Amino acid sequence: MSTTSGDMEPYLNCLEKLNIAEVSCAPFTIIKMFASHKTKSESRYDFSSLSFITVTGAPSSQSILNGARDFLAENGASNDLRIERAFSVTEAGSIVSSWRMADPPDWTEGYQGRLEPNFEAKVMAYEGEDENSVREVEPHQPGELWVKSPSCVQGYYKNPEATEEQFTDDGWYKTGDIGFFRDDKLYLLDRKKVRGF
Questions:
Q1: What's the mean pLDDT in 133-149?
Q2: What is the pLDDT averaged over residues 145-174?
Q3: CA 137 to chain centre
Q4: Distance CA 197, CA 191 (A)
Q5: pLDDT at 146
Q6: CB 189 within 8 A of CB 159
Q7: Closest CA to 175 of 106, 97, 83
Q8: How far is CA 83 from the centre of its chain?
Q9: pLDDT digits (tens, 9 = 90+) for 2-30
Q10: Average model confidence (pLDDT) for the chain?
């Protein structure tokens, strides 16, 4: 059987056949799942084994997650199924923030969970056009997310210009993501290059 990267049938069949309980996937997978729901409504599955799904990588919209939740519920998933976001960047070497089972579900747009152990983060704003004039913002205010951790890389291989642009001398990595913290929870709004911070 030949498949393409956009064909969700083999993936969905495995979720059902193997009684998968926990899934971690990229936003693309959730988007394709929702698209599958729209275009292949005649397909029926049994997703009663699913307990939670963590969507990690680039920020994903709440409407997409809601669409996936509806699709899964129509195919046997429990009303208690949680679809939550986590935030990760390659340069950080791991997931930066994720949801906690002890927390109630938070379906607020942009919610990315709480910082993982051994991570520090701060939200920075640039003063005017000068990339070197930067300040840490007050809580709840948006800006660029900077992270620091023992798992972060120290720079880009054989690319000192990119290293100088993205890493500070004291080890902070500038993620390029715009967001803010509220009650120790991370919310992402956009990418810096899109929002124009």
A1: 93
A2: 95
A3: 22
A4: 9
A5: 97
A6: no
A7: 97
A8: 11
A9: 445 557 888 888 999 999 999 999 888 88
A10: 87
Contact call for residues 178 and 142 (beta carbons, < 8 A): yes
Residue 53's identity, in one-letter code, is I
Residue 143 · residue 181 · CB < 8 Å = no
pTM tops 0.70: yes
Q: Is 16 exposed, middle or buried (0-12, 13-18, 19+ CB in 10 A)?
A: middle
Structure token pair of residue 182: 């509220």
- pLDDT-derived band at 131, boundaries 50, 70, 90: low
Strand-pair category, 52-57 with 22-25: parallel
Q: Which residue has the tokens 């729209």?
A: 38
Full DSSP string of 104-141: PP---TTEEEEEPTT-EEEEEEE-TT-TT-EEEPPTT-
* CA neighbor of 172 nearest in space, from 188, 149, 139: 149
The encoded tokens of residue 162 equal 């990119």
DSSP assignment string, the chain: ----TT--HHHHHHHHHTT--EEEE-HHHHHHHHHHHHH-TT-----TT--EEEEEES---HHHHHHHHHHHHHTT--TT-EEEEEEEEGGGTEEEEE--TTSPP---TTEEEEEPTT-EEEEEEE-TT-TT-EEEPPTT--EEEEEE-TTS-SS-TT-HHHHHHHB-TTS-EEEEEEEEEETTEEEEEEEHHHHT-
* Residue 49 structure tokens: 């084994």
